[in-house]
Amino acid sequence: MQLSFHTGPETMTSFLERLEYRVRYYRFFFLAPLYLALAVFLVTIREFRFVWVALTLLLFSLGVNFFPAFQLHYIAAVTCLFVLVSVTGLERIGRPAAHLIVFLCVAHFLFWYGVHAFDDSEVSMSMRPYETWDAINHGNPERRIYVNRQLAAIPGKLLVFVRYYPQHIFQDEWVYNAADIDGARIVWARDLGEAEDEELRRYYPGRAVWLLEPDSRPPRLTPFSPEGVRK
Fold it and tell me: Model pTM?
């Protein structure tokens, strides 16, 4: 059995779909109330230096979109331009409105910080899909280190099924396998339902089977049960 990923030729549709998804990464630079400042900046630009800023951000976003994989720090090089856009928009919107926007930014931050203070609660989990992408980092490296330490303490060869929650962000991938999958100590696979999971279990009869739920806080690693309840 081969576990592999197939990447077809780049198409305009896939390019645009990727661009549409990555808009949320650029939202990282704008607390939601700052969208007003962004709109004011875009509709009032007249000077070439500000037109140049908008064109630079557009060309940069189109250029980096050709690369299939993406991390937020890839666009860190234009952070200064995003700050300039916000400051210029606030300047042009007027002092009273600018003060109100800054107040709303503070309220926005405190609200979501409070949500994350109760990160394990059902209320927090239910609200998180609606959070804008100026989000608090959930400690991605720490979560993976935490899981790897648990797996290292389990003897023998393992087959680990990964079960995502419905609100999981698809680019936060956990299923990565070594080049020699069959010879690796740990084989990773997505939980695709009882029939598909059973087929893979039969292919690897000598491996202990575990279930990882990375969206749990903290990530939950338990012995695999085919009839386990899905989130």
Answer: 0.57
Query: Which pLDDT does position 134 carry in this prediction?
Result: 52
Q: Which of 191, 187, 182 lies closest to 214, judged by CA?
A: 191
pLDDT range class, residue 71, cuts 50, 70, 90: confident
Give the residue extent of every domain in the chain.
12-130, 140-223
Helix or strand holding residue 63 (H, E):
helix 48-64
> What is residue 130's three-state secondary structure?
helix
Residue 24 CB neighbour total at 10 angstroms: 13
Burial class (CB in 10 A: 0-12, 13-18, 19+), 33: middle
> Is 26 exposed, middle or buried (CB count within 10 Å of its CB: 0-12, 13-18, 19+)?
middle
Residue 215 CB-density burial (10 A; 0-12 exposed, 13-18 middle, 19+ buried): buried
Q: Are 31 and 131 in contact (CB under 8 A)?
A: no
**How confident is the model at residue 20, as a pLDDT?**
81
- If we measure between CA atoms, which residue out of 48, 94, 215, 73 comes closest to residue 147? 215
pLDDT in tens, 151-166: 999 999 999 999 998 8
d(CA 21, CA 38): 19
What pairs with residue 189 in β-bridges?
Answer: 161
φ and ψ at 69, to 5 degrees?
Answer: -80, 155
Strand partners, 208: 158
Closest CA to 151 of 70, 193, 208, 91: 208
